[in-house]
Design a protein that fits this description.
Keywords: Chaperone, Coiled coil
CATH class: Mainly Alpha
Number of strands: 2
CATH topology: Helix Hairpins
Protein name: Prefoldin, beta subunit
Strand order of the largest sheet: 1-2
Radius of gyration: 25 Å
Distance between the termini: 14 Å
Structural class: mainly alpha
Number of helices: 2
Shape: rod-shaped
GO molecular function, one term: unfolded protein binding
Low-confidence stretches: none
Coiled coil: 71-112
InterPro entries: PFD_beta-like, Prefoldin
CATH architecture: Orthogonal Bundle
Mean pLDDT: 94
Number of domains: 1
Order of helices and strands: HEEH
């Protein structure tokens, strides 16, 4: 029964697409959380005076850092995270299309397999 083997193969491919999709969605969720966190830090920097003391946690140590440098680092981080989210959004759309196509293919194979079983019965 060639149809059964083909159906199994395509269903496995569909499940792999679903796994990839779930991983990317999880990554996007993590990035969105990091983005919110960094946006909050940027807002705090905006509220601070220019001569305020800023400390950065490096490992177990707090290191003094210039406010300008800290602000710049946070802005760069926000830009990077935003571009990563956009990249993942593109991947998500692509995988959604691939999943839809694979789902339709699997359904056609299931119907053909059912018809083959009924014809043999």
């Amino acid at each position: 029964m060639m149809a059964a083997a083909q159906l199994e193969k395509e269903m496995a491919a569909f499940q792999n697409l679903q796994k990839d999709f779930a991983k990317i969605v999880q990554s996007r969720t993590q990035l969105e959380s990091q983005l919110k966190e960094n946006e909050m830090v940027a807002k705090e920097f905006d509220l601070m005076k220019d001569d305020a003391t800023v400390y950065k946690l490096i490992g177990p140590v707090l290191v003094k850092q210039e406010k300008v440098e800290a602000t710049s680092n946070v802005k760069k981080r926000i830009e990077f995270i935003t571009s990563e989210i956009k990249r993942l959004e593109t991947q998500i759309k692509d995988l959604e299309q691939k999943q839809d196509a694979k789902r339709a293919e699997v359904m056609q194979l299931q119907q053909a397999y059912q018809q083959q079983l009924q014809a043999n019965a």
